[in-house]
């Protein structure tokens, strides 16, 4: 009878983004057409950025 080993981590999970350990700084920059978010380490290294479309709705100021 042969015995096979199964890796403790699925190969599919290895392709996920690595999550930083410890504290991070989050920032956002909003504009009319898009918004940008960024995550930085405490030493200033960019951990990730993402751009999102801004909602297309009118804003009323009374």
Textual characterization of the structure:
With 62 residues, the protein is mainly beta. It contains no helices and 3 strands. A 3-stranded antiparallel beta sheet has the order 1-2-3, with no helix packed on it. A hairpin with a 3-residue loop joins strand 1 and strand 2. It is elongated. The chain starts with 23 loop residues before the first strand and ends in a 9-residue tail after the last strand. The mean pLDDT is 75.
Poorly predicted residue ranges: none
Characterize the overall form.
Answer: elongated
Query: Strand sequence of the main sheet, in spatial order?
Result: 1-2-3
| Class derived from helix and strand content | mainly beta
Strand content: 35-45%
- Terminal-residue CA separation: 79 Å
Helix and strand run: EEE
* Largest sheet, strands/sense/barrel: 3 strands, antiparallel
Helix content: under 10%
Computed over alpha carbons, the radius of gyration is 20 Å
Determine the mean pLDDT. Answer: 75
Q: Note the total helix count.
A: 0
Number of strands: 3
């Amino acid at each position: 009878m042969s015995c096979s080993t199964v890796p403790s981590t699925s190969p599919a999970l290895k392709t996920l983004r690595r999550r930083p350990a410890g504290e991070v700084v989050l920032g956002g920059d909003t504009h009319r057409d898009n918004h940008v978010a960024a995550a930085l380490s405490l030493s200033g290294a960019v951990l990730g950025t993402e751009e999102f479309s801004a909602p297309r709705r009118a804003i009323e100021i009374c």
